[in-house]
Structures are given as structure tokens and as C-alpha cells.
Amino acid sequence: MVTSQMPELENLLVELDGAVAIVTVNRPKVLNALNAPTLDELRRTVLALRRDAAVRAVIITGAGDKSFIAGADINELAQQTPVTGRDHAMRGQHVLDLIENLGKPVIAAINGYALGGGCELAMACTMRIAADTAKLGQPEINLGLIPGYAGTQRLARLVGRGRALELLLTGDQISAQEAHRLGLVNRVVPAADLMAEARKVAAALASKAPVAARYIIDAVNKGLEMPFPEAQVFEATLFGLVASTEDMREGTRAFLEKRKADFKGK
Ligand code: CO8
What is the pTM of this model? Predict the structure, then answer.
């Protein structure tokens, strides 16, 4: 049960809806900006969700109807030194890596501003669903900064070098519709329908074979960083491994018996 494994949390809410865990960043007074304690709570929560086999998909969203996450907490950034700034960036990168490689689908339900570190966090998720009222961007340049949670890397990989450079160098906020056109978000829905849509997508993903889902995420994330021939060998190896699972036998048998498969994650 997820709640019994959860760390003590001050800035996050965690709710379980069937096999879907919903994590809400809960600092609405500062538009859910990520300070160091919140980032650490996210790290511990993500690790707990990774361990919990009952959780098969995760939604990350922000409290209130105005903001997903308005970035790293600028109060902390204003105080940083070269040493603390580097440490902070590396801690953030580590937490986003954990999200990206959780081994289960993670959906960013973008309910408002996803700026700076908030946009970077959304990009580390497996899928992004945005409210039609959401605004996305990397405004760090307006603060004399650059992204530090790997936004320069993930944005270029998601939308291409030219579009990424434009967004990073202008610091402009873009609409959800524009983000969709660029491929930065997977879909846009009316704000009132956002959580219902995110739950629906998450529940559908949670019903799929968990080991196959984990290997797909691994094959795409790790494979994209490898030379193509090596990535193919990696994929073939995971394909071979998944053939050893009970879920592979159940999935193929269910197809032949013309019934819905019941995947156990084994
Ligand atoms: N950090 C701290 N406080 C914030 C942040 C933030 N990122 N964003 C908003 N707030 C606070 C505001 O200061 C304000 O507080 P108060 O009520 O005490 O004045 C409250 O939230 C409400 O915000 P606004 O009054 O500004 O609300 P508006 O509707 O007028 O504007 C905006 C909303 C446009 C989202 C505006 O708040 C804004 O521009 N926020 C900052 C967005 C931004 O620049 N984000 C990027 C931050 S840099 C970053 O994320 C780098 C990540 C990598 C770091 C690497 C480690 C070193």
C-alpha cells in the first residue's frame, strides 16, 4: 500500500486511485515553486513509488488552478553561490532522472504555469497532458540564468534544436496549443477536464503489462543515448527478457483465447 511507504510530506500530496498514484506539488502561494525541501520530498516519493508494485502509473500535477510548477524557488536562486548552484542543479537533475526512469508511466497533468524547472520536470515525465489554459516556457534567461535541471537537453530532444534554442533564448511563455504544435505536450484538453483525462490515460497505461512497460521506457530512454546498432542489441535483449515473463504468456494466450489479458507484473 503506497501510503504506508510514503515519507513524511509537507509540500506534496500523494493520493492513490486504484493502481494510479497522484502526486500534487502543494505550495500554491508561490505557484508551486520547487524549493530544496520540496525537491527532496519529490526524490523520496518517487523512490517509494518505484518500489511499490501496486502502483503502475503516476500523475504529477500542481495544487490550485493557476500553476503546475512556476520553476525553481527564486528566493533560493537569489542566494546561490557557484558551489551551491552546481549542487542544486545536480540534485534537480538527479530527481528528474528518477522520474524519467521510474519504470512506470508518469503523466504530467499541466494545470497552469509550467515554467523553468516546472517545464523541465514536465519534460522528464513519460507524457504531458496540458490544460488549454496552461503556459509553458524556459524563462531563466530573463533572470540572467540558464536552465539547470537538464532543460537545455530535454527540450532540444523533444522539439528539435532550432525550436529549443528559440524558446530558451527568448524566454517566452507559450500557450498549451503552441506547445502541442511543437510536440512539447502530447495533448491539450479543456482545463475542467484535465484531471479526468489524466486519470483515464493513467488507468489505461496502468492496465498494460508492467514489465513490458518498464522495458519500453528503458529501451527508449537509454537506447536514444546509444549508437543505433547498440540500441538495437539492447532492444533485442529486453525483448528476450520479456519473453521470460508470465505476462507474456498471459498476453499471447489471452489474444488466442479472444479474452482480455490480466497482467500481474510477473
Ligand atoms: N519562485 C518563488 N516564488 C515564486 C515563483 C518562483 N519561481 N513564481 C511565482 N512566485 C511567487 C511570487 O513571488 C508571488 O509571491 P508573493 O505573492 O509573495 O508576491 C506569488 O508566487 C504569485 O506570483 P505572481 O504574483 O508573480 O503571479 P502572477 O500571476 O502575476 O505571475 C508568473 C505569474 C508569470 C508565473 C510569475 O509569478 C513569474 O514570472 N514567476 C517566475 C517564473 C520563472 O521565472 N520561473 C523560472 C525560475 S528559474 C528556474 O526554474 C531554474 C530551474 C533550474 C535551477 C537549477 C538549479 C540552480
Answer: 0.96
